[in-house]
């Protein structure tokens, strides 16, 4: 039993013993589902450039188009996935559909042999990812104690990041042992995807957030409040969406930071993939501690101030001369940034939204961030071309330094509303 502000004992009464808070088994199971799915997807992503250009003989222009789909195709369907989960009050089965689509694309890779087929499979896979993300995060929110929501998302993101780190390692081990072993990677990827799908379908309960919320409210109808887009456009959520969009426009892709580090330091290109692993390891170590910190000091504060770590990473990448310490610092700072923003954004959107639109609110926030970051990445490419690596990085850092205090002020008060909102849910 959790002790809330309303559960405080009266004068003279003995307080009940405080038990150690535990993360819901639903959250852990969803984390394992994400772990297996990320092993599957990241193993494929790690070899896709080589497979497309070397095995299939396509050009780098073709791969660039495919990579663009991988980055952006999921963004625009996240709102639809959230809407479907809220409308039917069955987030699990919407998530099952999304994971199922991605699983089917792994089987398709075993027989695909051309640009059109690969492009179609990547698009379907990203659509599946977009469909499942918001319903999954809504299930995490519904299964968690509101006071420890940040920690729940931290646990999930930790397991998810373990999969993101293991996937590329699995792929490169296979290719090291079996030259041209792309088919073996695809088979292993399919196996991991099937395991993740089965865990979700068989072990995760079909929770109905609106029905649960209604059952806790005397006199409420069993179906709970009906879905309404007006609830998604509630003033506090609008503030969060605007701030998330502004900060997203100042968040360039990790690849640009890694390219800046490689361009400056001149290390061999075969070490380039380890930069991704370094950031994932930092994120893995920090996801739970930063999530717990967000629960204590405020999720809006951590979300905005986490961009200071991104600013510092820009400074490390934009420095005129580099040492190994600056490169390592940039990777760690990126890990801090993702730990402070990825799960925390979903937790904050879920905390502010009414139960009837929780998945749609999370999906909308994630879509705003994804689209704004796509625009930022495209614009920064021109900025780098026009100004050069160092000036472009330092300019982004300067603009972000101005934006962070303004966004901090814009979200003032959202953390103060946390207890009231969570209690209502």
From TrEMBL:
SUPFAM superfamilies named among the record's database cross-references: MFS general substrate transporter
Membrane-spanning intervals of the chain: 43-66, 103-124, 159-178, 184-204, 240-259, 271-290, 302-320, 326-348, 360-386, 392-411
Residues annotated as domain Major facilitator superfamily (MFS) profile: 26-415
Gene Ontology MF annotations: transmembrane transporter activity
Record keywords: Membrane, Transmembrane, Transmembrane helix
Protein's name in the database: MFS transporter
Keyword Transmembrane helix: yes
Main location class: membrane
InterPro entries xrefs: MFS, MFS_dom, MFS_trans_sf
Subcellular location: Cell membrane
A cellular component term, taken from the record's GO annotations: plasma membrane
Statement: the UniProt record of this protein carries the keyword Membrane: yes
Organism: Jiangella ureilytica
């Amino acid at each position: 039993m959790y002790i809330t502000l309303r559960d405080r004992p009266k004068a003279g009464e003995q307080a009940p013993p405080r038990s150690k808070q535990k993360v819901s088994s639903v959250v852990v199971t969803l984390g394992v589902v994400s772990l297996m799915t990320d092993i599957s997807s990241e193993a494929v992503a790690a070899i896709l450039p080589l497979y497309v250009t070397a095995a299939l003989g396509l050009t780098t222009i073709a791969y660039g188009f495919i990579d663009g789909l991988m980055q952006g195709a999921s963004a625009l369907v996240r709102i639809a996935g959230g809407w479907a989960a809220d409308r039917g009050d069955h987030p699990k089965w919407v998530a099952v559909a999304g994971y199922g689509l991605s699983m089917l694309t792994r089987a398709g890779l075993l027989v695909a042999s051309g640009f059109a087929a690969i492009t179609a499979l990547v698009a379907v896979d990203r659509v599946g990812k977009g469909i499942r993300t918001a319903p999954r995060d809504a299930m995490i929110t519904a299964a968690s104690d509101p006071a420890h929501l940040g920690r729940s998302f931290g646990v999930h993101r930790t397991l998810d990041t373990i999969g993101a780190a293991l996937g590329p390692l699995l792929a490169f081990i296979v290719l090291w042992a079996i030259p041209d072993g792309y088919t073996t990677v695809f088979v292993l990827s399919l196996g991991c995807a099937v395991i993740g799908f089965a865990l979700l379908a068989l072990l995760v309960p079909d929770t109905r957030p609106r029905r649960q919320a209604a059952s806790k409210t005397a006199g409420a109808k069993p179906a709970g409040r009906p879905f309404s887009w007006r609830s998604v456009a509630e003033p506090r959520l609008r503030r969060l969406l605007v701030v998330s969009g502004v900060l997203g426009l100042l968040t360039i892709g990790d690849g640009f930071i890694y390219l800046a580090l490689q361009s400056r330091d001149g290390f061999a290109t075969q070490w380039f993939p380890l930069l991704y692993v370094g950031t994932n390891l930092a994120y893995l170590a920090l996801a739970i501690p930063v999530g717990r910190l967000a629960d204590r000091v405020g999720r809006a504060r951590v979300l905005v101030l986490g961009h200071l770590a991104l600013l510092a990473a820009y400074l490390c990448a934009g420095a005129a001369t580099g040492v190994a310490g600056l490169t390592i610092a940039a990777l760690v700072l990126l890990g801090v940034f993702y730990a402070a923003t990825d799960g925390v954004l979903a937790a904050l959107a879920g905390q502010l939204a009414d139960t009837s639109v929780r998945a749609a609110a999370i999906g909308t926030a994630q879509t705003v961030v994804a689209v704004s970051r796509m625009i930022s990445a495209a614009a920064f490419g021109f900025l780098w071309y026009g100004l050069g690596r160092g000036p472009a990085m330092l300019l982004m850092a300067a603009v972000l330094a101005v934006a962070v205090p303004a966004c901090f002020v814009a979200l003032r008060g959202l953390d103060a509303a946390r207890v009231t909102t969570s209690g209502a849910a």
